[in-house]
Write a structure and sequence with these properties.
The two termini are 29 Å apart. This protein has a single domain, classed as Gcn5-related N-acetyltransferase (GNAT) (Aminopeptidase). Helix 1 packs across helix 3. A hairpin with a 2-residue loop joins strand 3 and strand 4. The protein is an alpha+beta fold. Strands 1-2-3-4-5-6-8-7 form an eight-stranded mixed sheet, with helices on both faces. It is globular and about 45 Å long. It has six helices and eight strands; from the N terminus they run E-E-H-H-H-E-E-E-H-E-H-E-E-H. InterPro entries: Acyl_CoA_acyltransferase (IPR016181), GNAT_dom (IPR000182), Ribosomal_N-acetyltransferase (IPR051908). This is GNAT family N-acetyltransferase. One of its GO terms (molecular function) is protein-N-terminal-alanine acetyltransferase activity. One of its GO terms (cellular component) is cytoplasm.
């Protein structure tokens, strides 16, 4: 199993300063660890996304991970966990992945103890880079509630462009949310990657 380092991390007042973070596949055999992580962050994670409602117990945790294992086998989605100092604290995913059409949608979640470290931005960069460079994906989307300021900031840090707003298109927990569609195109990603490499 691979593990991709995500450091160095931004320090926080609560961090030990020597914490390491890794991106790894999140597979069905990790269901107990996944459920424990979801229980720690259930309220925070569930503010804008329904993942905690889907992962309610061990069977549903295993089922969700199996769903993405099946999608990976079909080349239609993938799921990765973020481990901080050996503890699963969040993840990124290809919610959709269509290599033939050259499109995908990236998503994320994070428990509160890991917020503010730059983990999501770093992890999303890894999987977007793979999608564009290795798989030839032309358009990567990021769909987010307009109320979710932290996720909007990630899209901005990733160099994405806000394509538009789908007004009140997502009904969640009794509230209709405006959903923003952000994207980055393959040529834009490659250009920013080249600029970053030249700056090193």
């Amino acid at each position: 199993m691979f593990a991709i380092p995500l450091g160095p991390l931004r320090p926080t007042s609560a961090s030990a300063g020597d914490e390491s973070a890794e991106l790894r596949p999140l597979e069905p055999w990790k269901a107990e660890e996944f459920l424990a992580h979801m229980d720690r962050g259930r309220e925070y994670i569930g503010e804008y996304i329904g993942l905690p409602d889907v992962v309610a117990d061990l069977d549903s945790a295993r089922g969700y991970l199996q769903l993405y294992a099946d999608r990976q086998a079909a080349d239609s989605g993938r799921l990765y966990g973020i481990w901080l100092a050996g503890t699963l604290v969040g993840g990124v995913l290809f919610r959709t992945f269509d290599a033939a059409a050259g499109t995908c949608e990236v998503g994320c979640w994070l428990e509160p103890a890991a917020v503010g470290r730059g983990l999501i931005t770093r992890a999303a960069r890894v999987i977007i880079d793979w999608a564009v460079v290795e798989r030839g994906i032309h358009r990567v989307e990021w769909v987010v509630s307009s109320e979710n300021g932290a996720s909007v900031k990630v899209a901005e840090r990733l160099g994405m462009t806000r394509d538009g707003v789908l007004r009140q298109s997502y009904a969640y927990r009794g509230v209709r949310h405006d959903m923003e569609v952000w994207s980055v195109l393959g040529p834009e990603w490659r250009k920013s990657r080249a600029i970053a490499a030249d700056a090193r």
